[in-house]
Specification:
Largest sheet: 9 strands, mixed
Number of domains: 3
Structural class: alpha/beta
CATH superfamily of the largest domain: Carbamoyltransferase, C-terminal domain
Helix content: 25-40%
Distance between the termini: 67 Å
Shape: globular
Radius of gyration: 24 Å
CATH topology of the largest domain: DHBP synthase
Number of strands: 21
CATH architecture of the largest domain: Alpha-Beta Complex
Number of helices: 20
């Protein structure tokens, strides 16, 4: 009897953990099959602990155990990070001794033994691979991209020693040609201003970006003169007299306070014009650095395409500026650009770069499946759960449900939308979203105060039919991952009075600026998600039905969570958020729940 050839699925598990945004990802035969952040399961925002729940989800999704894995890959090299830590403390000794004493127990008990921890947690017996932090970022940027060849830029706070890199990806390899090294870092500069303006480092940087349009760039000159030596290639040297992150427990020093007119803002205290101007100034410098870096990399590589990753690549305003300058013909940005995406990059690095497996790129579509890589729940299991709880609901077919939800949006109802797989990365993309009417000038305030319980200055992004995006925004490319900011088209803007044009700070919030005011920021920009039927047909149909009703192929899309909590993962999370807020409608796959019918 002859042997039967049976295809063996080769699965690689990528892991990021122990700093912030722990995550897991499985790549099977080179295909990204499942990925999720640990925070979604534990409900601890930016959870840094070992992502055991995310690992278990990925394993279950692929119907495998740890015995079936051909490799496990951790997203950076802990020993080199430890070397950097020791070298930095020695360089600043005896300053920073308190910080050193606080850090050592964690390193000695946990971070130096990551290999053993991984093996113990998942029952894996073989060796574990450790690419560098920025190799994982670069792999996450290039390997899922649609490009056969591209320049690759990674920018974040710090990995082991590197804070930014650039290189070239071709086929199934990436060659990193340059590193900027700690303590000089665009990401840490931005985080220092995040700290100084009263927001939380590693999670509040997007708030600084959202605050920037309310301010004036009055500190740019002093920043470039005293704090940052910005080179023509986009690299920089920071004047470390103004920073404390090498040796202390804060990001900035007393010299920083003196330079910018006082101590840092206390968290949750009232925002002043100073914070707005500081946010605008560091945002301008960040954009300058990214533009210079992109221009330099284009010049030295000659590549037509650009791939971006690292935490700074989540700055959609800077990304939009690079696109607008047409430095490269095409761009692709890793949707989970922060540390969570390192898990995905690590797995792909092992498959392509270490094992030499081929990679196929068609020049059109990426291989990230719309970033819909998390848990999915069938209508049948949702119904079983709803019935067990006695929660009233109505079930509809997909076509009818799309029409009903579109009508609810038109009636100014706010909807919790839970359908299909959960998104991987920080953005809600129509899997776990709160959706509403972008035409309502009061909707931004309503969502901020009654649903999200968050700062009123922060803008909301639109989801727009891909084919209609140029009708609303100065954007001519797809933006499926909400990583590009562009301006609302001039003909859609409302004429401002002289008094309105002269408003400062939060006064800019008090009047609409376009015919889609709820997603138009005070500088006329919007952080755009384009939606096509290929990636998410159900979400596309909702927006398309809304267009049939109103003529507008665009709605508000914000993440399905409240302030301080991660995006919802399970139906239970969605229902809890539904009942804790003033959401009007909850959609769980094919089931619709109305707030007025629920028992309080």
């Amino acid at each position: 009897m002859g042997l039967v050839n049976k295809k063996v699925n080769e699965c690689i598990l990528g892991i990021s953990a122990f700093y912030h945004d722990s995550a897991a990802c499985i790549v099977r035969d080179g295909v990204i099959v499942a990925a999720a952040q640990e925070e979604r399961f534990t409900r601890i925002k930016h959870d840094h602990n070992f992502p055991i729940n995310a690992v278990e989800f990925c394993m279950k999704q692929c119907e495998i155990t740890s015995d079936d894995l051909i490799s496990v890959v951790f997203y950076d090299k802990p020993w080199i990070k430890f070397e950097r830590l020791l070298s930095t403390y020695l360089a600043f000794s005896p300053r920073g001794f308190k910080s050193f004493l606080m850090a050592m127990p964690l390193w000695l008990k946990q971070r130096l033994w990551i290999g053993e921890i991984v093996k113990k947690e998942i029952g894996y017996q073989s060796d574990i691979l450790f690419p560098t932090h920025h190799q994982s970022h670069a792999a996450s940027a290039f390997f899922p991209s649609p490009f056969e060849s591209a320049a690759v830029i990674t920018v974040d706070g710090v990995g082991e020693w590197a804070t930014a890199t650039w290189g070239v990806g071709k086929g199934n390899t990436i060659d990193i040609k340059y590193e900027m090294k700690f303590p000089h870092s665009l990401g840490l500069l931005y985080s220092a201003f995040t700290y100084y303006t009263g927001f939380k480092v590693n999670s509040g940087e997007y708030k600084v970006m959202g605050l920037a349009p309310y301010g004036e760039p009055k500190y740019v000159d002093i920043l470039l003169k005293e704090v940052v030596d910005l080179k023509e290639d986009g690299s920089m040297r920071l004047n470390m007299n103004f920073f404390n992150y090498c040796q202390g427990l804060t990001m900035t020093s007393k010299a920083f306070d003196r330079l910018f007119g006082g101590p840092s803002r206390k968290p949750e205290s009232k925002l002043s014009q100073r914070e707005m101007d500081l946010a605008r100034s560091v945002q301008v410098v960040a954009e300058m650095a990214m533009l210079k870096m992109a221009s330099h990399v284009k010049k030295v590589t000659g590549e037509k395409n650009l791939c971006l990753a690292g935490g700074v690549a989540l700055n959609c305003v800077a990304n939009g500026k690079i696109l607008k300058e047409k430095i490269f013909d095409h761009m692709w940005i890793q949707p989970a650009s922060g540390d969570a995406g390192g898990a995905l990059g690590a797995a792909l690095f092992a498959w392509h770069q270490v094992m030499g497996k081929p990679r196929y790129a068609d020049g059109v579509r990426d291989s990230q499946r719309g970033c819909y890589l998390g848990p999915v729940y069938k209508t049948e299991e949702i119904e079983t759960w709803l019935k067990s709880k006695g929660y009233p609901y109505r079930k509809y077919g997909r076509e009818e449900l799309s029409k009903i939800v579109a009508q609810y949006i038109n009636e100014q109802k706010i909807i919790g939308w839970f359908a299909g797989p959960m998104e991987f990365g920080p953005r809600a993309l129509g899997g776990r979203s709160i959706i509403a009417d972008a035409r309502n000038p009061k909707m931004q305030e309503i969502l901020s105060l009654k649903i999200k319980f968050r700062e009123s200055f922060r803008p909301f992004g639109p989801s727009c039919l891909l084919e209609d995006v140029s009708e609303y925004f100065e954007l001519a490319v797809a933006s499926p991952y909400m990583l590009l900011a562009a301006d609302v088209r001039p003909e859609r803007r409302l004429q401002m009075t002289e008094d309105q044009n002269n408003r400062f700070g939060m006064e800019k919030l008090t009047f609409p600026r376009s015919d889609i005011p709820a997603i138009t920021h005070v500088d006329y920009s919007a952080r755009i998600q384009t939606v096509d039927r290929w990636d998410n047909p159900h979400y596309y149909d909702i927006i398309n039905e809304f267009k049939k009703l109103t003529g507008y192929g665009v709605i508000i899309n914000t993440s399905f969570n409240i302030r301080g909590e991660p995006i919802v993962c399970k139906p239970e999370d969605a229902y809890r958020c539904f009942m804790k807020t003033e959401l009007d409608v909850l959609v769980l796959e094919n089931c619709i729940l109305l707030k007025g019918e629920q028992k309080r």
